[in-house]
Amino acid sequence: MVLVRSIAVAVLALAGCATVAVPEDRLPQAIGTALVEQWPLAVALVVAPGVETTSDRIVHDVGTHIGPTVLWALKQRFERVASTPAADSAGTFTLLGASAANGSVGFRIQLASPTGAPIDEWTVEGKPLAALYLAESYASALNDASAVLITTLPERPAVRAWLAAHGIALPADGPVLRAAPSSGSGRTAIALLPATGDAPEDLLAVRRARTCLGERLQPALEVLERDALRQRLYPWLELSVAPSSAAALLDFFGEPALRATLEAMGVRHLVLFGGGTNTRFDKGGMLCGGGGCLGFSWGTRDSSFFAIVLDVQQGTTAGDPQSRRTVDIYMPALIIPIPLIGATENEACEALAKQVRSLILRSAPP
Predict the structure, then answer these.
(1) Which H, E and C letters describe 45-71, residue by residue?
(2) Pairing label, strands 104-112, 78-82
(3) How many Cβ atoms are within 10 Å of 342's Cβ, its own excluded?
(4) Which residues contact 23 (CB under 8 A, 6 or more apart)?
(5) Using one digit for the tens of pLDDT, what is the confidence trace for 244-269?
(6) What is the average pLDDT value for the chain, to the nearest integer?
(7) Is the N-terminal amide bond of 200 cis, ω within 30° of 0?
(8) Cα of 93 vs its chain's centroid, Å
(9) Taking phi first (over 0 means left), then psi (-120 to 50 degrees means alpha), and beta for anything else, what does residue 116 get?
(10) Other C-beta atoms lying within 10 Å of the C-beta of residue 239
(11) What is the chain's Cα-based Rg?
């Protein structure tokens, strides 16, 4: 897995040379409305000189998106956000500075009273999901930074005290969300995510989940993959904010508003997928030189996959099916090595998909 991540990072860095502008349709502003409570306060946002010029050596326009992204994030939390302090402003947020490197972004933000007295100051960092282009990584990092800002605002003691002084009483625990529109699909849907142990930020993990399980569950089930679910539930599944285990996900979606949001989308089950294939030629041997190779090696190819099926409406684990297929493999070499490898992934994935489909359809409401 370490090697896979290293290759993904290298591909990301090399491919980044091909795209120099952050794709605006991947920024949080393109999502629409975040699923968070909006407070009936007016605030101001001031962007300090230098923030807009924050740049990566390949992606030059990162800084031009930081201010608008923070503005959008604050608008999700506050009823009105102006570019200059107004008479009815409860406070002023100031972007003091920003940084961009290797697909990650960070910015320093300060909250001050209408008289200019500092209330709180902190750093927000956004981490990128793996992407084919560096510019897409910056879009992902801006999504993550925005999510961190939105979700942590009510957690900061100084901000909570400031909100309380303006008559905003926050719940003791759990988010308060806006209502989510129904998907209107009328079908049984599932949400498919890579298991946390398989690096959910890894593009290869997302692709494995799709090809091994997602494609086999359709059309009997509607499958919402990671990116679609992230957008529908923004900001709660961004990299720095998302729950880190199956148990934490169940607890998280136990919050009534989030559970209702999934129900409106037609999603009752959340499926975490993990596993992979290992190929080992660990017996025999061969010698290679200028004229080619000579010898015979053999070993095994093992495909092992698992799924954790969470029933979000019931708040329970519906099952954790597993599937494994192993075959012997051979590689004779007479000048050129010729691997003779039996297929294992298709059989293992098909067996797992049948188990998952049966679990979900059996527990679906009539």
Answers:
(1) EEECCCCCCCCCCCCCCHHHHHHHHHH
(2) unpaired
(3) 13
(4) 135, 136, 139
(5) 788 888 888 877 778 888 888 888 88
(6) 84
(7) no
(8) 27
(9) left
(10) 18
(11) 25
Amino acid at 198: D
d(CA 274, CA 276): 7
End-to-end Cα spacing for the chain: 41
Tokens of 162: 């400031």
Position of tokens 């506050």?
Answer: 78
Domain 189-363 sits in CATH at 3.40.50
Pairwise CA distance, residues 183 & 268, whole Å = 13
List the chain domain ranges.
11-165, 189-363
Give the separation between CA 98 and CA 172, rounded to whole angstroms: 32
**Token representation of residue 290:** 């200028």
Backbone angles phi, psi at 255, to 5 degrees: -65, 125
Please list, in sequence order, all residues whose beta carbon lies within 8 angstroms of the beta carbon of residue 362, skipping any fewer than 6 positions away.
Answer: none
Report the relative pairing of strands 222-224 and 316-319 from DSSP bridges: unpaired
The residue length of the chain stands at 366
- CATH, domain range 11-165: 3.30.160
Return the structure tokens found at 124. Answer: 């927000």
Cα(127)–Cα(137) distance, integer angstroms? 8
Backbone angles phi, psi at 140, to 5 degrees: -65, -40
For residues 41 and 359, give the distance between their C-alpha atoms in angstroms, rounded to a whole number. Answer: 47
Other CB atoms within 10 Å distance of the CB of residue 282: 8
pLDDT tens digits for range 262-321:
888 888 888 999 888 888 887 888 888 877 888 888 788 888 999 999 888 888 888 888
110: phi then psi, degrees, rounded to nearest 5: -125, 140
> What pTM did the predictor assign?
0.80
For the cut 70, the answer to whether the pLDDT of residue 11 exceeds it is: no
What three-state secondary structure class fits 182? coil
